[in-house]
Design brief:
The complex is a heterodimer of chains A (about 350) and B (about 300).
Chain A (H helix, E strand, L loop, with lengths): L1 H5 L6 H10 L9 H28 L4 H10 L6 H11 L6 H13 L14 H36 L4 H14 L3 H15 L19 H38 L2 H8 L4 H39 L4 H10 L3 H29 L6
Helix pairs in contact in A: 3-14, 4-5, 7-8, 7-10, 7-12, 7-14, 8-10, 9-10, 9-12, 10-12, 11-12, 12-13, 12-14, 13-14
Chain B lengths: L10 H7 L9 H14 L1 H18 L1 H4 L30 H36 L3 H15 L2 H11 L4 H13 L1 H15 L2 H8 L4 H9 L4 H24 L10 H10 L2 H4 L2 H29 L10
The chains are: A mainly alpha (about 350), B mainly alpha (about 300).
Pfam families (chain A): BPD_transp_1 (PF00528)
Keywords (chain A): Membrane, Transmembrane, Transmembrane helix, Transport
Organism (chain A): Antiquaquibacter soli
Chain lengths: ~350, ~300
């Protein structure tokens, strides 16, 4: 995206205008139908994801609720209210499935997921709302940086095809995207954390800091976020490079690019303002989908760095069989990815009127 | 099989590379030509060599590995030495031997989970691409749902419920979460093939839909299917390692993922055993890279523009 705006203006103004007037005219005037349809689809997907979260524990052999209750009973007597909450959540066969489902939907809407077993007596909602900002900021920022950087490198690779500027980013990118997230994390932690002692080895802020909206805390949090961020950047960059390169190459073969070249436009103008501009759209669709992968990777990264985000919490919930926490976290993660995809969908419709059909 | 995704302007190029119609081409000829196309791509060649190396390592592990995978009478957390080239683990096992034996698990999971995901993707993608109307919309919704639900968290949740299932459980989890991408790619290709003349001809000659989809359309998508197999296998290998690293698999088996799990749990970071941390991850990365590299060559089969040595 920045590549487009960074290009010199003026020289190629006329062909641009021609292209725009030739764009399909019919529905491009009114984007609201498209947006409404997307909102409808988003709500439907949301409902389906919530339902999957309801069905999953009920498909599994054995009843997680029994295991959970047994586990909870070790900590002391279980109150009737807690027992009822767990049964509603994990599906002990009391009441029919439909009643359980209605009860579950009520919990989801009111964000009342009960009490965590592991971090008793904190509620699941409290835990999730503390962890969510860390992951959102970390994953969100790094993904945007990786997208911009990877797209630029991909444009370069496609434009300089066959030279070392192509081979190095593509082979390097393929290699780096094959790095397991946790391995990159372990290596960075080992060298930058333990051997060279450049960065803190765990946590999101120092032992003396307390979370607050102050400059000191911000700097401290940033310092702690660098290693996890670099890990995600290294591992996710390759995908963007390859994706952009692969959509850019067919675009470079299109007639209008040849025409622009024949007109004697500067190579940079042709690459960025003509080819990249059109090649970036398909890449944007994969942005939303790739986000799911990055979020998954961040779970592993957070686990290695002890970074108190959603992934770390999910890992703790799973190892402690804290099913209410686990379910709520899975729902939140899915929800975040759904929202991100929704935003990308809307953006896509705004940027490319042809998709509003 | 090379003609599929081409826009009109490349038609002349295609005609030259395609067998004359009439007698169906000999499958071995097709295979040899396909393999030749992949091999002619430098990146894919590198990938095939790396893959062959790991496959041989896995098959001949009993002959190559200096010790057994769980043989543990040695010094604990020892550094590299002539007896133990990569040192020993905290439980006194030989790291190099574990690395060699571990190749078996990764190759096996990649192969089986990749093949099963691809099978599901082919079945769903092709039927979906050929159907129209309401059912297609429903499948579309389900596939998109699977695409958009983040894979690893879903795997973790399922693995948590199926705790202690070992490799079989991991394969099931990987297949459940991994088929959707391939299905979508194959579906769009099926849709574009559905309107071709040879399909219309098959419809008019009274062939049943099942036969049209799997005997007429399927062979035209071999390269895409091969491509999605390698993609799914890569994802499976990474997912398996990730789940085992989190301790959600069977941590008593020896694989690259469990090696890293034990390395982290036994504080290899503090004892400074870099080989124990470095080697298993490097193997995972190399194996996964090799499959991605092979896919560069596979892309070239169906899309001559992506072949190497030819400029746009």
């Amino acid at each position: 995206m920045t590549s487009v705006t960074a290009a010199p203006r003026g020289v190629d103004a006329d062909p641009e205008v021609d292209e725009k007037t030739e764009a399909p005219p019919s529905r491009s005037g009114n984007p609201w139908g498209y947006i409404l349809r997307k909102i409808g689809l988003f709500l439907l997907t949301l409902w389906a994801a919530v339902t999957v979260n309801f069905i999953l524990p009920r498909l599994m052999p054995g009843t997680p609720a029994d295991a959970a209750l047994a586990r909870l009973a070790q900590n002391g007597p279980v109150s009737e209210a807690t027992k009822a909450a767990i049964e509603a959540q994990l599906g002990v066969p009391t009441g029919n499935l439909f009643e359980q489902y209605i009860q579950y939907l009520g919990q989801v809407v009111t964000l009342n997921f009960g009490v965590s077993y592991t971090f008793y007596p904190q509620t699941v909602s409290e835990l999730v709302s503390t962890a969510l900002p860390y992951t959102l900021v970390l994953v969100g920022l790094v993904t945007i940086i990786a997208f911009i950087l990877g797209t630029l490198l991909g444009v370069l690779a496609a434009w300089k095809r066959g030279t070392w500027l192509d081979t190095l980013p593509t082979v390097g990118g393929a290699f780096m995207s094959a790095f397991p997230y946790f391995w990159t994390a372990l290596l960075l932690l080992f060298f930058a954390g333990y051997v060279w002692r450049l960065f803190p080895t765990s946590g999101a802020y120092g032992p003396t800091a307390t979370p607050a909206f102050t400059w000191d805390f911000f700097v401290d949090a940033l310092y702690h976020a660098i290693l996890p961020a670099v890990t995600i950047l290294i591992t996710s960059l390759g995908g963007w490079i390859l994706g952009m390169r692969n959509t850019m190459i067919p675009t470079l073969g299109d007639d209008y690019v040849a025409f622009a070249e024949a007109n004697g436009l500067k190579p940079r103008t042709v690459a960025l303002r003509y080819a990249a501009r059109n090649a970036i759209l398909p890449n944007l669709t994969s942005f939303g989908l790739a986000l799911g992968g990055v979020v998954g990777g961040s779970i592993l990264v957070e686990q290695v760095f002890g970074y108190p985000g959603v992934g770390y919490l999910l890992f703790n919930a799973v190892t402690n069989q804290d099913y209410p926490l686990m379910q709520a976290l899975f729902l939140m993660i899915t929800l975040s990815v759904l929202v991100a995809n929704f935003i990308v969908d809307i953006l896509y419709g705004v940027l490319d009127p042809r998709t509003r059909r | 099989m090379t003609t599929t995704r081409q826009p009109m302007r490349d038609a002349t190029q295609d005609i030259r590379t395609v067998q004359p119609t009439g007698a169906p081409p000999n499958p071995w000829q097709v295979f040899a030509r396909t393999a030749g196309t992949i091999w002619s791509n430098g990146k894919a060649r590198l990938g095939l060599i790396i893959l062959a190396f790991f496959v041989l390592l896995a098959i001949f592990a009993p002959l190559i590995a200096p010790y057994g995978a769980t043989e543990n009478g040695f010094d604990r957390s020892a550094d590299a030495s002539p007896e133990h080239w990569l040192g020993t683990t905290a439980a006194g096992e030989d790291v190099l031997s574990q690395l060699i034996w571990g190749a078996q698990i990764s190759i096996f999971v990649g192969l089986v989970a990749g093949a099963l995901s691809t099978l599901v993707a082919v079945l769903v993608g092709l039927s979906w691409g050929y159907t129209r109307g309401f059912i297609a919309d429903v499948i579309n919704f389900i596939v998109n749902l699977f695409l958009v639900i983040p894979g690893l968290p879903l795997m973790i949740v399922i693995a948590a419920y199926l705790s202690g299932g070992g490799i079989g459980m991991i394969i099931v989890v990987v297949v459940i979460t991994g088929w959707a991408w391939g299905a979508r790619v194959l579906r769009s290709q099926t849709q574009s093939l559905r309107s071709r003349d040879f399909v219309t001809a098959a419809v008019f000659s009274g062939e049943r839909p099942f036969r049209i989809v799997f005997r007429e359309i399927l062979p035209n998508m071999t390269s895409l299917i091969v491509g999605s197999f390698f993609g799914a296998a890569t994802a499976a290998i990474l997912a398996e390692a990730g789940l085992e690293f989190l301790g959600l698999g069977d941590s008593s088996i020896v694989s690259w993922g469990t090696m890293l799990f034990w390395a982290q749990n036994s504080n290899a970071l503090l004892t400074g055993q870099w080989a124990l941390l470095f080697a298993p991850g490097l193997c995972i990365a190399l194996l996964a890279t090799s499959l991605t590299l092979i896919n560069f060559g596979v892309d070239g089969i169906s899309n001559p523009r992506l072949r190497e040595g030819k400029q746009r």
